[in-house]
Q: What sequence folds into this?
């Protein structure tokens, strides 16, 4: 399913945090949002899911303009995976309870079978079903968070730095899992990340943001050869290719 | 460190010269521009690392 953002503006009080943000992702495509902290990346995801009140602009999912208030059917199509799998799972609910809740809310049947299938899909066997989040490792918890997002069979997944809280060996497993799921289920991804190598691994295009505005949208093929339009983007590229004190001295604010 | 033991220590600036299989394995898991799109290497834990 495709998703298109047109002239999205968001305000937090007097603070204009997103300014005329526009981009689109084709069906089964994947786009990365990068930029420094506070540049508005996560706010875009929050605006799409309806977690932001003061906004203007159009969000178009599968050629259909979304209403200001999201209806229940929206959440069958669009789901989100959060950055911190330690905070995003209810500590006193078992994995079974965590995964059954969206099914109950959306009045779906075959709950048990759906849970068994989805756990298998994210690489967890049935023995995890009746454990609590604190009995799982960080990587296993993020698998549960991905399972919770997928259990409603959505078509678009919003990924808010899904591996930044995980060590690199677990990051590799989760990124491989996400790439496999996109292929097998025909999913569309919008992924926020600080890490250009992660974005290159997961996406076809990258949106570079600064101070609530899009500086440029580049293909990954252009990104990896540093063929970027703005000096800020090239600086972001340089900053991610290892620490170089001399280069950082010359960075512009 | 691995399983509560130090497996290797070296200068941070010479991390790319790490020799221990665990350290090498971690470095191998990182995504790179060159190998983008291919499945990432995942760590194969060796029981001998615990010794």
A:
């Amino acid at each position: 399913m495709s998703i298109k953002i047109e002239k999205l503006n968001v305000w937090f009080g007097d603070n204009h945090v997103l300014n005329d943000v526009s981009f689109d992702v084709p069906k089964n495509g994947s786009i990365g949002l990068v930029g420094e902290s506070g540049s508005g990346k996560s706010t875009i995801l929050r605006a799409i899911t309806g977690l932001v009140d003061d906004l203007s602009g159009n969000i178009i999912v599968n050629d259909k303009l979304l209403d200001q208030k999201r209806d229940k059917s929206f959440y069958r199509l669009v789901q989100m995976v959060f950055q911190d799998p330690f905070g995003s799972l209810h500590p006193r609910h078992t994995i079974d309870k965590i995964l059954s809740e969206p099914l109950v809310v959306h009045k779906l049947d075959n709950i048990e079978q759906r849970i068994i299938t989805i756990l298998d899909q994210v690489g967890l066997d049935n023995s995890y079903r009746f454990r609590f989040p604190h009995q799982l490792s960080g990587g296993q918890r993020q698998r549960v968070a991905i399972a919770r997002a997928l259990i409603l069979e959505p078509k678009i997944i919003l990924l808010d730095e899904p591996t930044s809280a995980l060590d690199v060996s677990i990051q590799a497993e989760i990124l491989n899992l996400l790439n496999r799921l996109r292929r097998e289920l025909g999913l569309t991804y919008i992924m926020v990340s600080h890490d250009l190598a992660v974005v290159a691994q997961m996406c076809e295009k990258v949106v570079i943001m600064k101070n609530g505005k899009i500086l440029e949208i580049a293909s990954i093929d252009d990104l990896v050869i540093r063929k970027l339009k703005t000096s800020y983007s090239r600086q972001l590229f340089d900053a991610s290719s290892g620490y170089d004190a001399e280069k950082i001295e010359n960075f512009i604010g | 460190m691995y399983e509560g033991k130090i497996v290797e220590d070296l200068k941070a600036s010479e991390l790319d010269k790490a020799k221990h299989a665990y350290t090498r394995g971690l470095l191998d898991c990182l995504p790179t521009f060159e190998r983008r799109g291919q499945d990432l290497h995942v760590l194969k834990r060796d029981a001998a690392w615990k010794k």
